[in-house]
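A further point concerns the way the authors explain their paired sequence and structure data. The central task, working out the structure tokens from the amino acid sequence alone, is never made concrete. I therefore recommend that a typical entry be quoted early in the introduction. An entry of this sort, consisting of the sequence and the corresponding backbone structure tokens, reads as follows:
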Amino acid sequence: MTPSQNHTVWTQWPELKAPSGFRILNPDNHPLESSDLSEITFYVPSYMGGRKVLEHTLKMPRLQILQVPNAGFDDALEFLNPGVTLCNARGVHDASTAELAMALALSSRRGFYNFAVAQHAGHWEHKRYASFNDSSIGIIGAGSIAQTLARYLAPYDVKITFFSRSGKDGALKISELDSQLPKLDILFLVLPLNNESKHLMNAERLRKMKDGAVLVNVGRGAIIETEALISELNSGRIFAGLDVTDPEPLPEKHPLWSAKNLILSPHVGGNSTAFDSRAKALIEEQLRRLHAGEELLNIVAKG
């Protein structure tokens, strides 16, 4: 990449450090809704802003780099015009997302939801639940979040099986998942959404899950076939912890709200106090590389 001194950068962080010659814009000095966006060449949509913040790229004719603050980038592809490089935030959300996945699995396995309901009702309901230890665990995904999750699982007495499309580095291929589902006590979904992963966990695969097993999804909602999951949950046969849903956000009175054996969090996997410092460090490194003419990190597509 050719060194440049003339980039105009928009991010949500006013205190961002940037190389000399870079113009830094933010919501305080350049609100997107009311400002001229034609000079912006490097754009970081505000975190958790959804489609609304991506649509601002339509008013950025000089945009060269779209740096999304998420690991997932499927929603940004629509806005990738010719000549625009798309980078994701691989690594930024590893700690937060992996710890939430752990919390959902532990809470589901040990009955925390039912304990909380009983607490609010003033009932002392002593009940035995399955231990997290001695579990057979599957992780579908081979990215940095999956690797971080495996590190967090290391202190427990569990057996971990990775699944990936390629089956490299000791993982089983996703095509082998069906034969393994009846053996798994906990299954984590930490893969991106694409044509191959959409409805990966369909009715047939959900039926193959072991009785009492826990399904945790911190990837994308559409990886699971929602209606089929609701049916399995309401049967009482399996448990689930979901940070993502399909549809999302989940509408009022949607049957998922009242499904049995389910813990829901509102897509907060990466949205913790650990986000800002890691995101700013990534953006500052990207700007340094851009200034030095080095290849950017986490390039996932070029328009």
User: Anything to note?
Assistant: The CA atoms of residues 25 and 103 lie 37 Å apart. The chain has eight helices and 13 strands. The mean pLDDT is 95.
